């Protein structure tokens, strides 16, 4: 009679020899499309970054970035890799930062917050003082507004958005931080405007355009 045995089989994920650390570099490289800037962001020399790109090209059997004139352009495969790599790195980051409880007093996390310069000026001095008191080792990186803030949040590139309610995605939890009102600022000697401004006067008047972008600041 043939003897049948139960055998325990160890299964593991086969990455075909890919160094997963290279995906961090590839994620930035696909965003920057520039070897020098990529190296600067991950603190590698240009030669080391080029060497890592060569390894990635060998692994994927694709150029990934090709020279067109004086710039690098993504290949079709590289375009297809952008979202999967970001998703993978986001999940890896969630696993790496998983802890039983968040303890502000001992945490060393770095939080990225996207907000306008107005909110940064109005709100953040108080927030930074409070964070320093209760979480002295936590870092806050303040980023200016971009064209697609909700996409950055969904990709895990920022941790918080501080925006008017109309601009926030309904798929994420939110909390009201403060309520403010708009005010018109006019030249005191403007002959067309008195103590009050009607809608018609406002629409006819010239306006100063304000850019939401500002230099990123690191607060600790």
Tags for this entry?
220 residues; alpha/beta; Arc Repressor Mutant, subunit A; D-Maltodextrin-Binding Protein, domain 2; 2 domains; 4-stranded mixed β-sheet; 39% helix; 11% strand
Question: Using only CA atoms, what is the Rg?
Answer: 25 Å
The ordered H/E elements are HHHEEHEHHEHEHE
Coarse structural class? alpha/beta
| Gap between N and C termini | 73 Å
Query: What assembly state would you assign to the polypeptide chains in this entry?
Result: single chain
What CATH calls the topology of the largest domain is D-Maltodextrin-Binding Protein, domain 2
- Overall morphology: extended
Can you give the helix content as a percent range?
25-40%
CATH architecture annotation of the largest domain: 3-Layer(aba) Sandwich
**Percent of residues in beta strands?**
5-15%
Whole-number tally of structural domains: 2
Q: Enumerate how many helices there are, as a single number.
A: 8
- Rounded mean pLDDT is 81
Going across the biggest sheet, name each strand in turn.
Answer: 5-3-4-6
Number of strands: 6
Low-confidence stretches: 10-14, 212-220
Q: Main β-sheet: number of strands, strand sense, barrel status?
A: 4 strands, mixed
CATH class of the largest domain: Alpha Beta
């Amino acid at each position: 009679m043939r003897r049948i045995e139960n055998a325990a089989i160890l299964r593991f994920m086969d990455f075909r020899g890919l160094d997963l650390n290279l995906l961090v570099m590839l994620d930035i490289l696909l965003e920057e499309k520039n070897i020098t800037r990529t190296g600067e962001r991950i603190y590698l020399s240009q030669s080391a970054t080029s060497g890592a790109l060569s390894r990635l090209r060998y692994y994927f059997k694709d150029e990934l970035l090709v020279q067109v004139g004086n710039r690098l352009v993504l290949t079709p495969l590289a375009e297809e890799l952008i979202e999967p790599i970001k998703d993978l790195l986001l999940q890896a980051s969630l696993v790496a930062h998983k802890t039983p409880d968040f303890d502000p007093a001992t945490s060393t996390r770095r939080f990225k917050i996207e907000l306008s310069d107005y909110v940064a000026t109005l709100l953040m001095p108080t927030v930074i003082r409070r964070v320093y008191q209760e979480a002295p080792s936590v870092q806050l990186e303040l980023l200016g507004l971009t064209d697609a803030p909700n996409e950055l949040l969904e990709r895990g590139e920022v941790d918080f958005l501080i925006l008017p309610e109309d601009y926030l995605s309904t798929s994420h939890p939110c909390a009201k931080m403060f309520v403010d009102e708009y005010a018109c600022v006019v030249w005191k000697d403007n002959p067309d405007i008195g103590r009050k401004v009607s809608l018609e006067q406002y629409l006819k008047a010239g306006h100063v355009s304000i850019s939401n972008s500002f230099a990123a600041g690191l607060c600790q």
